[in-house]
Design brief:
This protein is an alpha/beta fold. It is built from twelve helices and 13 strands. The termini are far apart. Bound molecules: 3'-phosphate-adenosine-5'-phosphate sulfate. 3'-phosphate-adenosine-5'-phosphate sulfate (PPS) binds next to helix 2, helix 5, helix 10 and strand 13.
Length: about 350
């Protein structure tokens, strides 16, 4: 849907994005979208065609692909980056079987419109479910496309994912959880036993009434066949990326630092992508546990909906077993990445 923006001109863009890293941004530039109040990066519509022409809006190859692992902050990162005056993001859809299927039409459709001053970023967090498709992805992007991956402590990730799955399944209080080993999903969705579509979506999860029961098997060992656990095997995922893409093209971000000081992580991205510096502490306001971006030119900025849910308190012994379980994997990852993210000890 186009908006009436015919009174705009491209003159306010002049001289803003000329020579990279050390530039700071001036006036908020005109772009190919207008934003309204609502969910970050999703409440936008294209400007009318005449203005698109004037601004030279096109679907240009994305400068970077944002990868990630569920609940590590990928969607939050994408939403915040979209507030940058020279960055436009969009999200590549995950199929309703919970996987990603790479197709020309879907890829073309996902690429955002950008002016020649802006860069486009494509969030493909769904790639985590299909790490073997990294080589396939290379056929869709150019040789210099960069990769951004945000990772959080795998235990924190599992707790966050547990809560997310519980909320999405809408488990009725006091009901026993059904088990279906064949489908490898336990639970209910909206008070009904899980149907085939939902089974696909939650395939691989085993979610019991407590987090502890969910992550331990009947022998009291960490249940490595549970998606809550195996999505935290970041080392394998990162290796599958490094196997095909040189390390210089990949930026791995600390999901914990992103919660504590989002502006510092966003600055890392600005520098990696060579865009003018925009994010700063003063653009955020702390509400509860999180910093919320407040950008006056963007009515869609503010706290992110559906994030920061209250988490269950986890039994100390179970936490200890999870820590010993993930420690060697985190060390492998630290050595392969060559960076020490705050949660990697
Ligand atoms: N500023 C800010 N506001 C809200 N949430 C923040 C923020 N920074 C980081 N996070 C972390 O992001 C976690 C949610 O991850 P996402 O849904 O964005 O990621 S993903 O797309 O599933 O990868 C979310 O996990 P939950 O607390 O479980 O929602 C947070 O740990």
């Amino acid at each position: 849907m186009s908006q009436n923006t015919s009174n705009r001109s491209s003159s306010s863009r002049e001289g803003h994005f000329s020579s990279g890293k050390n530039n700071t941004y001036g006036t908020f530039p005109e772009g190919c979208y207008v934003y309204s109040k609502g969910r970050l990066a999703l409440s936008r519509s294209e400007v009318e065609e005449s203005l698109q022409k004037l601004l030279n809006c096109e679907k240009r190859p994305p400068k970077a692909v944002i990868l990630g692992v569920k609940k590590c902050g990928t969607e939050t990162l994408t939403g915040l980056l979209d507030l940058h005056p020279y960055i436009v993001t969009s999200i590549y859809p995950v199929s309703n079987n919970g996987c990603i299927s790479l197709e020309n039409v879907a890829f073309e459709r996902s690429i955002p419109l950008t002016t020649s001053d802006e860069i486009g970023l494509l969030d493909m967090v769904g790639m985590q479910y299909s790490p073997h498709k990294v080589s396939e992805l290379l056929e869709f992007i150019s040789n210099d496309t960069k990769f951004i991956l945000i990772l959080k402590d795998p235990i924190e990730r599992a707790i966050s994912d547990y809560k997310h799955v519980l909320v999405k399944m809408n488990l009725p209080k006091g009901k026993d959880i059904t088990t279906s080993r064949e489908e490898h999903v336990w639970g209910y969705h909206r008070n009904k036993e899980i149907g085939p579509e939902i089974v696909k979506y939650f395939k691989g999860y085993r979610v019991a009434k407590s987090f502890e029961k969910s992550v331990l098997n009947s022998l009291g060992q960490i249940d490595v066949s549970n998606k809550l656990i195996y999505l935290g095997f970041y080392y394998d995922y990162v290796q599958s990326i490094f196997y095909q893409i040189s390390k210089e093209r990949v930026l791995i971000l600390d999901g914990q630092a992103f919660i504590e000081k989002p502006w510092s992580v966003l600055k890392q991205v600005e520098s990696f992508l060579d865009v003018p510096s925009f994010f700063a502490r003063k653009k955020f306001q702390k509400e509860g546990k999180f910093f919320c971006p407040i950008i006056k030119e963007r009515p869609d900025s503010g706290c992110l909906k559906g994030k920061g849910r209250n988490k269950p308190r986890v039994n100390k012994l179970v936490l200890k077993s999870l820590k010993s379980f993930f420690r060697p994997l985190n060390e492998l990852l630290r050595d392969s990445v060559g960076a020490n993210l705050s949660w990697m000890q």
